């Protein structure tokens, strides 16, 4: 795929009569979230979608990005492209800053760059120059070697923006970019978006309650209330618009606050009246797209040099920020030149993801180091408890119990972490897959490849210790068979856990239901082998369920 971002690829977003409905549990009628909204978001402008909670801000944003398609009616156009092809050029920054905590800022940027830009059109040194200058532009150079978990809220938000600027998307969507930030960080973030929009991008964000300073930075304000659009125009026309509808904004009152008060119905329910008045573009400052490269303001470091763009070759032109001549250094302007980038193949991306997963496994000591230690300690305790059960005929029943415990232990310790792992990473996965970093199957294969050796190591350490401590038959063939069975047991349990985790909505309350299901799954297996007296023969009609549990098969394989 090639991305060519120049003036001819500036994309305006037009949508008409968008209706969005969602089903309501235990009711036949659907709830209508958006009620025929229309609008136009132009390139070169920073657009803010405002409204009370539940007005449909995030729903509209999800529809524009293509994140939501079910239950949507209406027309959506993005420039001269079809909505499907144009949405591939969009980047969507979610409300939460979804970053891997164990990577530094530079490592995170480098991984994203390798996933987005092929090494055939940009060398490693050029990629590092690109990264350094993006971080410099977003004031993140000083935190370059800081791990993401140690960043402040504003730094995380800027890093999320920096990650999507690597391939210079023409359209950028942000959901609540100021959530969790203080006043200063919020103002800086919106100013950054304002300047990025002036480069020719179409930037759309939702925001809950902007300050007066932030409100003045928006080129277009799009206000929703009860699923209707009650205002679409410039920030400077807010007060005249409200006055034309009989609402007088008090002097020295934030127009954004007053507009939201009207939207909330604090002065009466005039939603339908305002929706009719908001139709059209008459409240925009200008009907033409503004494309002015504003001076990049830096209140905290007024004497720093700013970055321009240049790194052209005869065959490929890559958009990188580089120190330019005196004119741009003096003017302090931020500019993007047209670029052509080729994305790497999925095979290349697979190896990048494998490398990333390996680093995560090594740095997260709770996943590898601690778990390996726990397997060793548990093996020693269990092995000492059962003693010579492997050679003492009087302890044959105890030996069977020992084998059951091994199967259950390996099953539990492999399945439950897998159940929890996917919901913990799903937010990052959704962002990266939706923004075309890689395909879902690539992520799954990389996860499978990296987790298999780890589970093999855990099974070998545990099984070897308990095998010799309980004095099992010292036969190489039997030992290798036991090792193979336990390795397969752990790998199968991990896959079973991933399946459960995939079905989980990553909300804790729902997650618990699947955790309980995992416990029940293992209980069915253990019950089948513990309750075998005639007193429990009535269970024979339902004990066939235990044969569906993979740990049941591992026990049979060892006992044969």
Automatic annotation (TrEMBL):
Coiled coil: none annotated. One of its GO terms (molecular function) is ABC-type transporter activity. Residues 13-251 form the ABC transporter domain. Keywords: ATP-binding, Membrane, Nucleotide-binding, Transmembrane, Transmembrane helix, Transport. It comes from the Eukaryota. The keyword Transmembrane helix applies. The keyword Nucleotide-binding applies. It is a multi-pass membrane protein. Residues 301-315 have a biased composition (Basic and acidic residues). Belongs to the ABC transporter superfamily. ABCG family. Eye pigment precursor importer (TC 3.A.1.204) subfamily. This is ABC transporter domain-containing protein. It comes from Chironomus riparius.
């Amino acid at each position: 795929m090639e991305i060519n971002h120049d003036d001819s690829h500036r994309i305006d977003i037009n949508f008409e009569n968008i209706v969005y409905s969602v089903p309501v549990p235990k009711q036949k009628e659907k709830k209508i979230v958006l009620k025929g909204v229309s609008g136009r978001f132009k390139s070169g402008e920073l657009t803010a979608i405002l409204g009370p909670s539940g007005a449909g801000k995030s729903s509209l944003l999800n529809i524009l990005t293509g994140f939501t398609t079910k239950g949507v009616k209406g027309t959506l156009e993005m420039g001269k492209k079809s909505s499907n092809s144009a949405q591939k050029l969009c980047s969507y920054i979610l409300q939460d800053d979804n970053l891997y905590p164990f990577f530094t800022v530079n490592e995170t940027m480098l991984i994203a760059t390798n996933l987005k830009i092929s090494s055939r059109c940009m060398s490693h040194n050029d990629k590092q120059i690109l990264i350094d200058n993006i971080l410099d532009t977003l004031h993140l150079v000083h935190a370059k070697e800081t791990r993401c978990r140690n960043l402040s809220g504003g730094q995380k938000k800027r890093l999320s923006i920096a990650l999507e600027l690597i391939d210079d998307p023409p359209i950028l969507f942000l959901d609540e970019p100021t959530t969790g930030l203080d006043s200063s960080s919020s103002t800086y973030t919106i100013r950054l978006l304002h300047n990025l929009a002036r480069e020719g991008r179409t930037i759309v964000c939702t925001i809950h309650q902007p300050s007066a300073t932030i409100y003045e930075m928006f080129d277009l304000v799009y206000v929703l209330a009860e699923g209707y659009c009650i205002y679409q125009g410039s920030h400077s026309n807010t007060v005249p618009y409200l006055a034309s509808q009989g609402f007088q904004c008090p002097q020295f009152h934030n127009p954004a606050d007053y507009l939201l008060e009207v939207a909330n119905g604090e002065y009466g329910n005039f939603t339908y009246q305002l929706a009719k008045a908001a139709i059209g573009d008459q409240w925009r400052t200008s009907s033409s797209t503004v494309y002015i490269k504003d001076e990049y303001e830096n209140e905290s470091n007024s004497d720093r040099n700013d970055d321009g763009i240049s790194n052209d070759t005869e065959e490929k032109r890559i958009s990188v920020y580089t120190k330019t001549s005196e004119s741009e250094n003096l003017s302090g302007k931020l500019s993007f030149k047209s670029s052509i980038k080729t994305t790497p193949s999925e095979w290349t991306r697979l190896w990048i993801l494998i490398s990333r997963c390996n680093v995560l496994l090594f740095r997260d000591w709770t996943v590898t180091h601690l778990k390996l230690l726990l397997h060793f300690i548990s093996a020693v305790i269990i092995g000492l408890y059962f003693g010579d059960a492997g050679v003492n005929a009087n302890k044959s029943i105890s030996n069977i119990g020992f084998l059951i415990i091994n199967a259950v232990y390996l099953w539990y310790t492999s399945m439950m972490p897998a159940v929890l792992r996917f919901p913990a990473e799903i937010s990052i996965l959704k962002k990266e897959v939706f923004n075309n970093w890689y395909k879902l199957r690539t992520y799954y294969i990389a996860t499978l490849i990296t987790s298999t050796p780890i589970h093999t190591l855990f099974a070998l350490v545990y099984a070897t210790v308990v095998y010799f401590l309980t004095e099992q038959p010292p036969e190489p063939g039997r030992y290798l068979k036991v090792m193979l069975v336990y390795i397969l047991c752990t790998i199968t349990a991990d896959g079973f856990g991933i399946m459960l985790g995939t079905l989980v909505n990553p909300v804790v309350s729902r997650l618990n239901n699947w955790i309980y299901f995992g416990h029940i799954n293992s209980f069915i297996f253990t019950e089948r082998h513990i309750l075998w007296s005639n007193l429990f023969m009535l269970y024979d009609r339902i004990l066939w369920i235990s044969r569906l549990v993979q740990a049941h098969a591992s026990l049979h394989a060892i006992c044969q």
